[in-house]
Amino acid sequence: MSLNRYVLICLLPTLITGCAEFNGPQPTAPVYGGYPSVDKTAAPQPTQKKKSKKSKSVETVKIAPLEGTDEIKSEPLSNSEPAPLKELKPFEPFESRTSLSPAVGALVSSANQNTKAGDLDSAAVSIERAIRIEPRNADLFYKLAVLRIQQSKPRLAEDLAKKSALLASNNNVLKKQSWLLIAYAREMQRDSAGAKAARAKADSF
Would residue 81 count as lying in a domain? Predict the structure, then answer.
């Protein structure tokens, strides 16, 4: 056996072992300029499901009248509104014969002329001026109360008539007429009970 063949036989196992390493699985070679490598060991990400918009169903509601509603009738409310004011006869004032001072007499005459002409405001102003001159004259308060009645101011008329009855002192005729005026003013205010009481007071004189 030659020397070369002996050396080849000794190196042959080593060569076979080295070649066997190349025949096994090899790592994946990097790819340049291509698709990126996918790591198969990574956990797959859950895909988000798109929420589908469900169309809302529209329900139609039918409204039917209740049975027997045709027989229901509205009833008038009782005591919901005050009773209508009955027609009152025009108040007939009492004409006093009491003597007056010249200044007050002139104002009263002017008031009477204005009243006949329908100028009640000017007539009331004249009587108010006369009251400033004689503040304790019961006749003047009565005349002013009559004007307030004609002006449809029953509250003021009632107060003035009470003042007249208070100042009338021993003049029972004027007291009676003042309370009758108070009764009329209360009727204008729909105070039936108060008007009745005022008439009873007038009858006492």
Answer: no
Domain span including residue 144 = 102-203
- How many domains does the chain divide into? 1
Q: d(Cα 24, Cα 74) in Å, to the nearest integer? A: 105
Cα 172 from Cα 137, distance rounded (Å):
15
In this prediction the pTM is: 0.58
CATH number at residue 163: 1.25.40.10
Residue 109 lies in a domain: yes
pLDDT tens across the length of the chain (205 residues):
566 676 667 766 666 665 555 555 555 555 555 454 555 555 555 555 555 455 455 555 555 555 554 544 444 444 444 444 456 666 666 677 677 899 999 999 999 999 999 999 999 999 999 999 999 999 999 999 999 999 999 999 999 999 999 999 889 999 999 999 999 999 999 999 999 999 999 999 8
Non-local CB neighbours of 186 within 8 Å, separated by 6+ positions: 154, 158, 192, 194, 195, 198
Residue 7 in any domain: the answer is no
In degrees and rounded to multiples of 5, residue 74 shows phi and psi of -70, 140
- Contact present, 186 and 201 (Cβ < 8 Å): no
Within a domain: 95? no
**In Å, what is the CA distance from 203 to each residue of 19, 23, 50, 93, 152?**
152, 146, 99, 17, 25
